Target: Major facilitator superfamily (MFS) profile domain-containing protein
Amino acid sequence: MASGATDPLLPRAGAARRRPATGGWRSALFIIWVEVAERFAYYGVSSNLISYLTGPLGETTAAAAAAVNAWSGAASMLPLLGAAVADSWLGRYRTIVASSVLYITGLGLLALSSTFSSPQSQQCSSSGDGRQVCRSSSVQRAFFYVSLYLVAIAQSGHKPCVQAFGADQFDATDPGESSSRSTFFNWWYLGICASATVTAAVMSYVQDNVGWGLGFGVPGMVMLLGLLVFLLGTRTYRFYDGGGSGAFSGVGEAVRAWRKSRRRGEGGGGGGATVEAEHGELAEEVRGMARLFPIWATCLLYGVLFAQPPTLFTKQAATLDRRIGPSSSFQVPPAALQSFLGVSIIPCVLLYEHVLVPAARRATGVATGITMLQRIGAGIAMCAVTLLVAALVEMRRLSAARDADPGAAMPMSLWWVVPQYVLFGAADVFAMVGMQEFFYDQVPGALKSLGLALYLSVLGVGSFISSFLISAIDVVTRRDGGTSWFDDDLNRGHLDYFYLLLAALTVLDLLAYVYFSMSYIYRRKVVDVQ
Model:
C-alpha cells in the first residue's frame, strides 16, 4: 500500500491511505534529476579513470584496465548490500540521502588525493625494454584507492534505491499509472545517458587539459546540487510500507517454512500441509527468485562487454589522430568519444518508444510491443555485431600503424572508432533498459530494490570477469618473452584478438540465453492490447 507524503525520516507503522497529490510524473522528475546528477558524478570519475591510472599514477595498460574493471565490479555488486539495507531497515528515501552524503564525501577526498600526484612525487625506473616507467608513491595510491572505493560504497545505496523509488511513484494497480511506468524506464535511461554524454565530453577535457583536482571536484559539486533538488521534492513523494518485518526477513521466513514443511511431509505428519498453506505465498516468492537465476547468468557476458568502452575502447582511441580537422590544433580527449554512446542512445530511445513499440504492438498484440526478454536478447545480439566491427577497426588500425613511418602521427582518424560506440549505444537501449525493467518487474513487491541490484550485479560480475580475462590473457601472452595483447604500446598488442574472442563468447551466450528465455514463465502475465 502507498502512503501520503509524511515525514520520511520518521518510522512508519502500518499502511496509510495514499493521497492523490503524491506520486506520478511530478515526483518522478525530482528523482530523475538526482539520478542525472549521480550519473554525472559517476561518469566524471569512471569515463577517464584509465587515463588517470596510466598517467599520474603510472600503471600499465593491463593493470589499469583490470583495476578499473575491479572498481566498476565492486560499484555494481555492492548495491546488493545496499538494497538489503534499504528494503529491510532504512527504507529507500533515507538510504538515498545517506548514500548521497557519503558520495559527496568520497568525491571530495578523490579531488584532494589527485592534488598529491605530480611528476616530482613519482618514482621512476627503467623497464626491461629500456622505457622509463614512473609510478606514484604507495601512500598516494593508497589514499586514492580508499577515496575511489568510498565512492563505490556510496553508490551501493544510491543506485538500487533511486530507480526503484522513482518507479514507486507509479501505482501498478492503476491502469493509467501502470502504463506510465514502462515509459518511465525509457525516459529514465534517456536522462542518465544525456548526463553521461555531457560528462564524457566536458569532464574528460577538463581532466586532460585543466587538472584532475577540478576534474574530480566538479562531479562532487554536481552531486551536492542533485541532493538539494531531491530534498526539495520530499513532500511530493509516495512512500510504500514494507510490511513491518522487512523483505529479507520475509524471504528467510519462507525458506524456513519450506524446509519445515518438507521435513514434516517426509515424516508423514499432517502439519506440513498447514505450514505450507500459511507460508505458501512467501515460498512462491523464493521460487520466483530462483527462476531468475538462468536469465541473470546468461546476461553476465553483457556485463563483460559493458566494461570495454571506458577502458580498452578509450586506450584504442588515444592512439588515433584526434584532431577535428587537418589544420586544427585541438585534440578530442579519448574519453570524450564515450559521448557517442549517449548520442546514439538518446535518438534510439525516442525511436524505440515512438516507432518500434507502436509497430510491434500492432504485430504482436503485446502492450509493450515486444516482451522484456525479447528486448534483452536483441541487445545481446547487437553487442556481437558491435564487437565484430571493433575487431575489424582494430585490424585496420594495426595495419595503418605498421605502414606509418616510425615516430610519425597515426594516419587514421578518430572517426573510425565512432561506429563501435554508436552500435554499443543502440544495443544498450535494448539490453540495459530491458534488464532494468525485467528485474524490477519480476521480483516480489517488497524486493524491488533487490531486483534493480540484481541488474546492477550483472554489470558488477561482468566487470570482475573482464578484469580476470584481461589479467589472465596478459600473463599467458607475456609468457616466454611474448608480447601481451594489451601491451602499453597498443601498436604491438592485439586488441583485435580480444574483441574477436568476446564476439565468439557472445554468440555462445546468446544461444544459452534464448534457450532459457523461451522456457521462462513471467511472474505477471504480459499485458495484451485490448
Observations:
- Confidence is low (pLDDT under 50) at residues 1-19, 242-251.
- Residues 9 and 94 are 7 Å apart (CA to CA).
